[in-house]
Amino acid sequence: MSTITPTIKLLINGNFVESKTTEWRDVINPATQQVLARVPFATDEEINAAVAAAKTAFKTWRFTPIGTRARIFLKYQQLIRENMQELAAILTAEQGKTLADAEGDVFRGLEVVEHAANIGNLQMGELANNVAGGVDTYTIQQGLGVCAGITPFNFPAMIPLWMFPMAIACGNSFVLKPSEQDPMVTMRLVELALEAGIPAGVLNVIHGGEKAVNAICDHADIKAVSFVGSTKVGTHVYHRATLAGKRVQCMMGAKNHAIVLPDANKGHTLNNLIGAAFGAAGQRCMALSVVVLVGAANEWVSDIVAKAKTLNVNAGTENGTDIGPVISCAARERVESLIARGVEEGATLELDGRNPTVNGFEKGNFVGPTIFSGVTADMSIYHQEIFGPVLCVVSAGTLDEAIAFINQNPNGNGTAIFTQSGAAARKFQEEVEVGQIGINVPIPVPVPLFSFSGSRGSKLGDLGPYGKQVILFYTQTKTITARWFDDNTVAGGVNTTISLK
């Protein structure tokens, strides 16, 4: 008996709608190649309908009391907590990461939802009393209108939750385009958002590829666009959307380094290096893909390899799994081709993770932990973002040499240092030209009280997602200068100067 493959719906004006498109893509379990669902590439009419619904909803949502908005997100965070295991199971099935890591994915997004529930303390203006005779000046922060988000496959829960909760809490309406590779957990989160009380039209979802991205960039009624993904697509989105007059923030590719000094706590450092390099099969924009060993720490290569060999490669659903599959067959082939190129270009392959044996999941897109030593800046495995479980080991003689090596890389997402020297750590944080810095912390993604602050080639746009910066991104600041007169005030003469007297 044949089974019917479920279809992913669009969300337009509060209704989950079956697309009328003729273009579909399969959502595939990367550990088994099972087709889980079919996702539509929305038509122009459907995309326009989603934006129109958001535009109409904004007219009333913008005036919704701030406490009402906050209470919706208090309810939403409760619903996410209650459904955490279900969300993680959906995420693992379509994306591949382990169940524990999938829960982490959801939880880091949940933190931003909790932050959105605090909007009353965040979206506050300023007041200066009596700046001139009887004149007050104050600011208010109001929603922009329709905002949009374009999210990647590697964090299908966290990154959508970076975007629409903060935008909606600030008084905007929103159109979300999830990754077409794994939209199922995103849609479940959207269902919970509606259950929490987000009104019809305030949150809408479309699906698609390049055509949908361009439609978001071009649509005159969309005022701001948030993007997380590859440098190639992010650069395209930034230039196309800014030319259309929109505010844009793009968090893009990376090549993240960690410096290891000889005085570092060895056990702590090895555990952190391996976890940050190979967790989520290296499919993180904050993955630690390069370690720079300084001085006597160059003797640690064999220890790094030995620790990596202890990791278990298996389906994310299986107990004890450390590394699940990469997202697709194409991704696996790309990672394997870059490993082959690293060998061709002269790096020493200390650990080869190609073609691991995974019993029961022979069709999965698996690549095991892979380590190269003797890596130099001109090699493809160094200057390209591999987005797989591949760690490059670079040798440096001094801390100054290591910092200079990091600074010559065009990316600036994250970096870390492992040391017990406060002086070395302070020198590193002051001199390294990277936006997010860890000191004995391998993946320095900030909590939502602070903003994600990647820099240089990893970011386009001035303001980052979540934290205080995103309030500025999703609001328009209005400055009001006011003077009031009572009935007994005697009118003076006409003042033709610019001064307030």
Overview of this protein structure:
- With 501 residues, the chain is an alpha/beta fold.
- The protein has 16 helices and 22 strands.
- Strands 14-15-16-13-12-18-19 form a seven-stranded mixed beta sheet, with helices on both faces. Strands 9-8-7-10-11-21 form a six-stranded mixed beta sheet, with helices on both faces. It has a three-stranded antiparallel beta sheet with strand order 5-6-22.
- Helix 4 (99-116) packs parallel to helix 6 and helix 10 packs across helix 11 (301-308).
- The longest helix has 18 residues, at 44-61.
- The chain is globular, with a radius of gyration of 25 Å.
- The model has no long low-confidence stretch (mean pLDDT 96).
- Pfam families: Aldedh (PF00171).
Keywords:
16 helices; alpha/beta; six-stranded mixed beta sheet; Aldehyde Dehydrogenase, Chain A, domain 1; 21% strand; single chain; Aldehyde Dehydrogenase, Chain A, domain 2; 2 domains; NAD; globular; 501 residues; seven-stranded mixed beta sheet; Ald_DH_N; 22 strands
Provide a quick synopsis of the model:
GO terms for molecular function: methylmalonate-semialdehyde dehydrogenase (acylating, NAD) activity. The protein has 501 residues and is of the alpha/beta class.
Helix-strand blueprint:
Layout: E1 10-12, E2 15-17, E3 24-28, E4 35-40, H1 44-61, H2 66-82, H3 84-95, H4 99-116, H5 119-122, E5 127-132, E6 135-143, E7 146-150, H6 158-169, E8 173-177, H7 184-196, E9 203-205, H8 210-218, E10 222-228, H9 231-243, E11 247-251, E12 256-260, H10 266-278, E13 288-294, H11 301-308, H12 329-344, E14 348-351, E15 370-373, H13 380-383, E16 390-396, H14 399-407, E17 411-412, E18 415-418, H15 422-431, E19 437-439, E20 455-456, E21 459-460, H16 467-473, E22 475-483
Parallel strand pairs: 7-8, 7-10, 8-9, 10-11, 12-13, 12-18, 13-16, 15-16, 18-19
Antiparallel strand pairs: 1-2, 3-4, 5-6, 6-22, 11-21, 14-15, 17-20
Helix pairs in contact: 2-4, 2-7, 3-4, 3-7, 4-6, 8-9, 10-11
